[in-house]
Amino acid sequence: MKIAFLISAHTDPQHLLRLTEQLPEDSEIFVHVDLKSNLQEFRTVVTCPRVHFIEKRYDVMWASMQQVKFQRALVKEALSFGTHFDYLFTLSGLDYPLWSNQRIKDYLTQHKGQEFIQGICMEHQQGIDAKQYQEYRFLNNHTWRYGTLKSKFRVSLRKISYALGIRKKLYITVDGQHYALYKGADWWGITSELATYCMDFMDNHPDFVRYFNTSFCPSETIWQTIAFQSPFASRCILSEGAFTRLEDYTPLTYIEYGKEIKVFTEADYETLLACGKMFCRKTITGKSDKLMDMIDEHRRNG
Predict the structure, then answer these.
(1) In the chain, domain spans
(2) What are phi and psi of 191, to 5 degrees?
């Protein structure tokens, strides 16, 4: 069972070191460090030869196409590495494994071929969740920081255009083909075959990709939209009904959202063990150390 871990990092090099040391010893790890961050700080701390810092880096702003770009860069590095990986997993640099490495590999062996990417069709969704995707996010390719005048202008443009009835459709039509919009999360595990299919699809359908340039959080929709309308759809995890919470669409990663993502501590230990998921997010050096020590002991015991 060969696994490639695709990690997005922007802070806490010490945690990245601890995370990478805990991942399966025969895996390869590809890391994108946000262009705003000091890459050398990460390189100095994380020196394992299995960890590959990719050269192509992006100035990442949440909910923009920059996230899709670094995802694609990571996938490209893994697929061209020279090793056939059974699975490619996306992780944040502040994730941590809850299962032992043997349990991870055994589980993937038992479920080999399943795609651990989850999504829900947004085409007929209603309310605020649908509205987010009906709004045109003009100028979303600019990495203007939130709160600046340029960012406020962009927000105003989005609100005004929506009020005037200028709405994005919750589907894409490319070459006469209808593609419903699917929503999921950034955290998934897919086979190299599905990853290759998605990359080729994006390379060969620029009009399809262009739709997401003005979409909300395209990194949580573009992969799902392709996967659920591909030959691999039956292997993916389809949710039905009304959209609920983003954390309900992370099949492998346990997350708690409030106004922001919760930082886990030792007080969350039992909750994390009971969640049944492979990873948790998020853990931070100086705040989650005792928790991670407890998790390490649990993982050593299988």
Answers:
(1) 3-125+170-300
(2) -70, 160
Residues 6+ apart with CB under 8 A from 218: 64, 65, 67, 68, 212
Q: How far is CA 84 from CA 78, 88, 215, 230, in A?
A: 9, 10, 33, 21
Per-residue pLDDT reduced to its tens digit, 49-58: 999 999 999 9
The pLDDT score that the predictor gives to residue 167 is 96
Tokens of residue 206, six digits: 């620029």
| Residue among 270, 268, 277 nearest 249 (CA) | 277
* pLDDT tens per residue, range 147-197: 899 989 999 999 999 999 999 999 999 999 999 999 999 999 999 999 999
Cβ atoms of residues 99 and 296 within 8 Å? no
pLDDT band at 19 (very low <50, low <70, confident <90, very high): very high
Per-residue pLDDT, averaged over 257-271, amounts to 95
The CATH code for residues 3-125+170-300 is: 3.90.550
Distance between CA atoms of residues 137 and 133, nearest Å:
9
**Longest distance between any two alpha carbons in the chain, whole Å:** 60
Q: In this predicted model, what pLDDT tens digit does every residue of 208-235 receive, in sequence order?
A: 999 999 999 999 999 999 999 999 999 9
- The SS3 call for residue 282 is coil
**What is the distance between the terminal CA atoms of the chain, rounded to a whole angstrom?**
18
- Distance (Å, rounded) from C-alpha 167 to C-alpha 169? 6
* Side chain identity at residue 244, one-letter code: T
